Amino acid sequence: MGKIFEALQKAEEENIQAPPAETIAAISPDNTVLNDQLVCYFQSNSIVSEQFRKLRTYLLMPNLGTKPKTILITSAFSGEGKSLIAINLAITIAMELQSHALLMDCDLRNPSLSRWFGVDKAKGLSDYLLGNADLPDLIIKTGIDKLSLLTGGSSQENPVELIGSKKMESLVDELKSRYSDRHIILDSSPVLATTEPHVLYKMVDCILLVVRAGATPRGSVQQAIKFLGKEKIIGVILNDMNFKSAALRSRYFGTSQYYPCYGNDKNIKSQSIGSRLSSIFKKE
């Protein structure tokens, strides 16, 4: 437990020294590269970002009872945008005044979160579970205030034993209990293709299931919910909606006068709301 505490403390320090170049050259927050599809950071005033704030409010509002500390993000199949949903939700939680977020890549078959933050070669969760690295050296403080990252590490062909290990269970329990203001977002592999989401089910407080509009068959969604069980699934996120007209978009979001032209924030080139909405959540 002491090492986990040390790792969390290290991630929150203002000045983190980068490790030797032969290990992880890009672990310093000054060197992390934030991909511009992280809409909640680069386009914080957009319609899309507002939907993530609504999701955050739903997750963290008091009348739900105990606030969930560990949130599992998964989908029926790959390519439904679950990783981008996990990242943007974590960013939104970190931007809340009273909350910190730790983003964990638990998709050890195809770890992808490191790419979005420009730390492709970083060791991570698989290395820790295999005993090849200590946790204090793995938690990365990103360039976003109050957001830390634990990458997936080296890809594993059959990682279910690692994910289902006592070491993994102890890690999640410790991360959950150490701080009252920290929320852990776990990006998992797909439900119907792998066993890991079912293993992680018992370790987390709640589950969000990502469904890609016009792509995920209804029967597959029902099968995924049946496989996981309904008890911890608190919501389904409909991703990549294609609004064919401004009138249809207004039916869901109302007037656009509250939002600046999508693409004006943080030096991103200006584009129409419709075109950016159709491109922001593509396949992983």
Description:
The chain is of the alpha/beta class and 284 residues long. The protein has a single domain, classed as Rossmann fold, CATH 3.40.50.300. The chain contains twelve helices and seven strands. Strands 3-4-2-5-1-6-7 form a seven-stranded mixed β-sheet, with helices on both faces. A hairpin with a 5-residue loop joins β3 and β4. α3 crosses α4. The chain is globular and about 45 Å long. The chain starts with a helix and ends with a helix. The C terminus is likely disordered.
Question: What is the secondary structure topology, with strand pairs?
Answer:
Elements: H1 2-11, H2 39-42, H3 47-60, E1 70-75, H4 82-95, E2 100-105, H5 113-116, H6 125-129, E3 140-141, E4 147-150, H7 160-163, H8 166-178, E5 182-187, H9 196-201, E6 206-212, H10 218-228, E7 233-239, H11 246-253, H12 273-280
Parallel strand pairs: 1-5, 1-6, 2-4, 2-5, 6-7
Antiparallel strand pairs: 3-4
